[in-house]
TrEMBL record:
Protein name: Raffinose/stachyose/melibiose transport system substrate-binding protein
Cross-referenced PANTHER family: ABC TRANSPORTER PERIPLASMIC-BINDING PROTEIN YCJN-RELATED, ARABINOSE-BINDING PROTEIN-RELATED
Keyword annotations from UniProtKB, A to Z: Signal, Transport
Domain of life assignment: Bacteria
Family under the similarity heading: Belongs to the bacterial solute-binding protein 1 family.
Species in which this protein is naturally found: Candidatus Planktophila versatilis
Lineage: Bacteria, Bacillati, Actinomycetota, Actinomycetes, Candidatus Nanopelagicales
Signal peptide extent: 1-24
Membrane-crossing residue ranges in chain numbering: none
Record-linked Gene3D superfamilies: Periplasmic binding protein-like II
InterPro entries listed in its UniProt record: Bact_solute-bd_prot1, SBP
Pfam families documented for this protein: SBP_bac_1
Amino acid sequence: MKKSMKLGALALASTLSLSLIAVATPSASANTCPRKATVTMLGTIKPEIQDQFLAAVADYNKSQNCYTVKSVPGDRKLTFLQNVTPMYAAKNAPTIMYTLQEIPDMADKVLDLKLTPLARLVSKSLLASGNVNGRQVGVPSTAEAFGLLYNKKVLDKAGVDPSKIATRADLEAAFKKIEASGKKPLHFSAIWWSLGAHFTNIFHTNVGKTKEARLAGLDALVAGKADLANNATFKNWVATMDLLKKYNAGKVNLTDTEYDASIANLAGGDFGFMFQGNWTEPNLITASKGDDFGLMPLPISNNAKDYGNDSIPVGVPGYFMIDAQQSTKWEQKGALSFLTWLYTSPEGQKRVAGPVEEGGMSFIPVYKGFKIEPKTYMAKEISKFASAGKTLDWMNSYYPAGLQEEVGKVSMQQYFTDKISAADLAKAIEAAWKGKPKTWRGEAA
């Protein structure tokens, strides 16, 4: 979620086509090790695939003699910066870090990875959000998409074809069909990060057909010149949110514990739809022991030809960075060795892109040379959208650090629970953005 995230059909499809390029993993023999270095990493990428990631770490640690990678758990109740800033202050910075919106805040503390083997295996478009002032300060983990997830069995039973849903009216008709079939139409989550990052993105990515038009929308918010209450796209976006609230059959819960409940509802076959992303797929497959989940666009107007109604937001959820200030050269080499092993070795690729039921993370590969290809229905659906050029920007990649928390935990949750009006929501979002640094224009965070 950061700098320029142009994920057009050619760029992303080329990464999904998985060309076969052999790359040697940087390593060191026992004879060249000055000493065995411990490489620390803050967190485990994502909690949903924590066990699989730690299994990959264990595999790597067994594979060589020079480095040991150790995951240092952070406090999930705190932001990335709230976790990492005290570590730097204590002269105990992690060697590997993983984040997105905070990349500009970290750019002066981490290595330039431009000439590394990994950076040479990724398209420029996917590297862009990890590039700050010409320095490649981060390399991507995977590509993800979000929108309306669905349980294929539930939709089939109700006679709903997701490919035929092109407007908000079509979506409501689908909800009614699911209700008539005896199932619940939707679990719409009130989790702050889902509302503050992903659902707000649906608005910001639909405000213009070009990248510059979308960035200009952010410029206007920062300058205090936006009038959201009278913005046609904003009105349509709120109307779509109202529709989802109306048909939401999930119990409203403002905490992160609702994530597990939403997974159980969709996986159990009780619900037809859920607003989330493909990062849920490992959890869904594990919970249902099946592979019957798809992803479709969330239409925000009643004109099927309106921009964005037939597309899904596709982007990079986070970038790996390597500390340059407090880590030794040997620890930095170890960090690069681990990341390169993870994405270029047969063992690492199996962990990255293999099925979750076999210990994989089920990631969509973004590095050339992958010989493991995801086989899940949802991953295939995302690839189809990407190949057809039906992708939208992750404008949440540009959000200033803390913005999604501010909007998600306050105004979006307040509107979700009917505490404020649509006009109040418009004012609150305008106030949250006003005066923020325009990092997408090169301003310092």
